[in-house]
Here is the input.
Amino acid sequence: MEHIFEKLPRLHILSEEMGQPYQTVAAWKSRGSIPAKHDLMLVEISLRHGKGLSLDELAKARAAPPASAAWPSSSATGRIGRSNMAGPTARSLPPPASRR
Here is the structure.
């Protein structure tokens, strides 16, 4: 949905024209999601600013899976995947002593 924000005015202008707090509109952009109840207003604002956003574009953007829907790779997150959790230290430990 990131490309939708390219067809809208800057966040401070958008928030003013929508009557929404700036923090709310900024959170929508950060989250990549705008509540659908604002669609008509978004189209009107976009047209007023010569950006040309359509309801069809909004519908397609909502139908597409968000960019964050895929599981990130371990290199992208800096995390170690499950397959690496048993590292060499765990494998090199001697077996536990049997109880007598």
Observations:
- The chain has seven helices and no strands.
- The CA atoms of residues 91 and 97 lie 16 Å apart.
